[in-house]
Design brief:
Blueprint (H helix, E strand, L loop, with lengths): L2 H21 L5 H24 L2 H59 L7 H28 L4 H20 L1 H10 L6 H40 L4 H10 L6 H17 L4 H27 L7 H15 L1 H26 L2 H4 L9
Helix pairs in contact: 2-3, 2-5, 3-4, 3-5, 3-9, 7-8, 7-10, 7-12, 8-9, 9-10, 11-12
Length: 361
Amino acid sequence: MNATKHLRFWLIGGALFVAALWLLRDMLLPFVAGVAIAYFLDPLVERLQKPLRSRALATLVTLAVVSLVAIGLVLAIAPMIAEQAQSLATKAPQQIARLYQRFQPLLDPVRERLGMAPGSAGATVEGAAGIAGDALKFIGTFLGGALSQGFAVLNMLALVFLTPVIAFYLMRDWPRLIAIVDGLLPRNQAPAIRQIARDSNRAVGGYVRGQAIVCLSLAVFYSVALMIVGLDFGLIIGLIIGVIAFIPFIGSWVGAILAIGMALAQFPPDWIKVGIVLAIFALGQFLEGNVLTPKLVGDRVGVHAVWLMFALLAGGALFGFVGLLLSVPVAAVLGVVVRFFVARYRESAYYRGEQDTPPPA
């Protein structure tokens, strides 16, 4: 089989695989979550396997400990989240109206230049409350659509009950599955594919595990710090900042808008607390950019931040929440594949400008 047929075979196989994923996207979440959990926890199972002398027992112990820790965290913070979410639903319009009123003196000159009549205080409050109500209604509609499509009741039940089972079997049989896949590789291409797989594993594993620790650290830091300073909804804001920290730049901007906007609505004329919130956010950004991300993540993905954002948006548009989960690993693997073929291209006669056959005498 020549190179053209090889390329055609892999392109057709890849296209069929992507088409199958797209057709089955509504049922993939438990399997993707199970694969992610198994991949994330496999190093821990490897460490426990030797002292426990059983991979199945090491897998069971790992899942049990992680499940207990997760359940404990949920039980510890769920009441506070529910209380702050309920308070947010009732206080958000007033907070937005208060923030709007504080900045109205700065907005009135702009309105005059644009020929717009400045509104009264009552109209401002009602308008801001209406905007907040519309925003909350939009969020509710969005969540309702997500629940009716990607997160239907059946999918939620499958996520809760099937994901641990899938993760257990994958973690238990991980070496066997790797051996099966390796045995199916075309023999003449196996060394190159293994090298791509090793590079992809280093990129994806290092990024996913490192970024998860970064997101968790930021969520804890911002939640605790904002609650200590007395910011309303500090726990929810801190958790949101931690969750979206994996999105380059966008996560930082959203976090800044939420934290600083709430501080400006709540604390003035106590500008010292506003300054404390600004200092907390600045310290968090410094820790993320200069300590956490360089030490835990580094440049493991090897993909530019713009392409990461494109991958996140494209994955979400094509596959929904599952696409968001898969977008960064897929972008990392594609980056490894592209670098591999670029290296082969630089070694080829096409790049060097050499002729494959000597010119006739």
